[in-house]
Input
Amino acid sequence: MSSKIDQVIFSFNGSTKEEYEFFMKPLKFDDVVGRISDFIKMRGNRKTPQIAVHMLKLGASKDSLIRMRNYWNKLGVTVHILKYENRAGNVKNYDVKLTKNVKKIPCYRLLNHMYIVVNGDAVLCCADWEREVVIGNLRKQSISNVWNGKVRAEYVKAHKEGRFDELKLCDVCNFNEIVVD
Output
């Protein structure tokens, strides 16, 4: 396997066979574990591409989540366990609310990534699949001009100042919430 790809991230949502097959219909747990494992084995001892597995913390027990993380770790893969997020308010019937000891921090996605859709629009983030906040268009502007443009700059400034409630999408998004003691 030789490529110029730096990193591959697999989304693996479910820490038990039952949970995975419920949330990832029509995929089959054993088939997907086998395919990801085969990909990891193809990489062999090379350090690239880096491989990570992103798992959502869903309803299964903490023990099954740890078992699944340990399985991937033994294959030399980094595992990130992520919370179930409301995708800037776009997930219908989202009912997971953290109300105690929650603080918003500047968003990693906004500060580090650019999201470009097929027509060239650069949108605020991956949760903006409705294109509610277009920060520029790569058919009309350079990447640098979009990245350093007025719309994104206003969002970055507001994030750094903690003014999330003034920003469309960010006002309801929970991706950048952390629990503090």
Q: What stands out?
A: The longest helix spans residues 29-43. The mean pLDDT is 85. The beta strands are 7-11, 50-57, 78-83, 102-104, 115-116, 121-123, 134-137, 177-179. Helices lie at 17-23, 29-43, 62-74, 108-112, 143-147, 150-160.
